[in-house]
Amino acid sequence: METIKIKQVRSRIRCPKDQKAALDALGLKKLNRVVELPKNAAVLGNIHKVRHLVAVVEN
Question: Whole-model pTM above 0.90?
Fold first, then answer.
């Protein structure tokens, strides 16, 4: 299965609860953390919701 690496590049302070929940679902709790997740619709939807807080890391 294809995977995608994402990194949290901006702080979650002052973000709405739904965006904090999306970051938690992605496994991002601290700044500059990188996680590798499967590339499926659920993950891509969460990334889209917090696209201003995360960056996709090239493999």
Answer: yes
- What CA–CA distance (Å, rounded) separates 50 from 2? 21
Whether residue 3 contacts residue 39, with contact meaning beta carbons closer than 8 Å, is answered with yes
β partners of residue 5: 36, 57
CB 38 within 8 A of CB 29: no
Q: Does residue 55 carry a pLDDT above 80?
A: yes
Q: How many residues does the chain have?
A: 59
Rg from Cα positions in the chain: 10
* DSSP, res 28: -
CA 34, CA 16: separation in Å to the nearest integer? 22
